[in-house]
Amino acid sequence: MRFTRNPEREDELIAQFKNEMVDEERKGMFPSMTDLIYCLTKAYFKQRYFPELEDRRTILQFYQGLFTEAAIFGESQNATKGKFEGVFYHTDHVAGPMLEETKTTASSLGKAPDNIPFYQQRQVMGYMKAEGLTKARFIIWYKSGNYKPPTQPDLAVWDVLVDPDEVDANWEWMLERKQILMHHVDAKTIPTPYTYRALGDMECDGCQFASLCQLEVQGLT
Description:
Layout: H1 7-21, H2 24-27, H3 33-37, H4 40-48, H5 56-73, E1 81-84, E2 87-90, E3 93-95, E4 98-105, H6 118-131, E5 135-142, E6 154-160, H7 164-187, H8 210-217
Parallel strand pairs: 4-5
Antiparallel strand pairs: 1-2, 3-4, 5-6
Helix pairs in contact: 1-5, 4-7, 6-7
């Protein structure tokens, strides 16, 4: 048996995934909570230059998320969306006072919940503030379980207790980020590269705007 990779078929599938994710309403949802949590420089470039652009990695990540949501919630899914204090948001599922957020991760279940990223916690607290919710839950699909042989996937549901003061403090941080981003959008100036990242250097790996940041640092934009 011989294997030959088929990039043409891959491109067809990526295009299919992208078409299935098209949401005309979301295109006008700026700034979104996600924009404010992650790199503000990237959010600026996406809005100013390439609002339609989605790279391969981003498409696959989003599609995987949608697939997971559909598998977990099915037809009962109640994904809410809206705008709160100038920030757009879109939840996975809300049931009464409970927010449920789904995630898929390559992290080890054996190290959970300490390895649930803080930026994901910020996202959940932001949704809680916007929706006026008092309870939250992470539903996490661990692709390799706890990595102990035989390696196999696992699912964990984490109920979260959040202090209201923590939710409010997180929202103040969100509004500060919004003010910074919108100042640069209005002034048509680039947020200082490498300053407003949630993941450090990891966030730059594979970013379609990495070259623009390099040019800005070199004073060539």
